[in-house]
Specification:
This protein is an all-alpha fold. It is 62% helix and 0% strand. The protein is built from six helices and no strands.
């Protein structure tokens, strides 16, 4: 499975900017060396990182402990409070992605139904 370190860097940078933090603050809060934080944020050195490093950064940024690992592997990150997933189990990981997509589709369908109901009430429904 391919790893997308550029996506991890982008995700971290967006969150750090959103929180108004500096690199040093992220390093201190996550207890990850500033040099490693810099490498990951700048995506300058693509190498295998400890799962614990990504977990520490995820938690420090206020996310689920597996958030950055999911981003790294192109998966939808779990929400805070969700149980830990076995990221090495491909079937479990794929099912989690499918469940989240189904939830998103269900929400979109409900919004469309509401929009159609408003149009019908306004007399803007399809011509008979």
């Amino acid at each position: 499975m391919s790893e997308d370190w550029a996506a991890v860097a982008k995700t971290i940078n967006e969150r750090v900017n959103e929180l108004g933090w500096r690199q040093r603050e992220l390093a201190e809060r996550s207890q990850v060396s500033q040099a490693i934080v810099r490498e990951i944020q700048r995506n300058t050195v693509e190498r295998k990182r400890s799962d614990r490093t990504l977990e520490a950064l995820s938690v420090a940024l206020g996310w689920h402990s597996q958030h950055l690992t999911a981003v790294l592997h192109g998966r939808i990150p779990p929400a805070v409070g969700e149980p830990r997933e076995d990221m090495d189990d491909a079937v479990s990981a794929r099912l989690a992605v499918i469940e989240r997509r189904l939830t998103d589709l269900t929400e979109q369908l409900a919004e469309l139904r509401a929009d159609v109901a408003v149009l019908i009430r306004r007399g803007g429904g399809p011509a008979a």
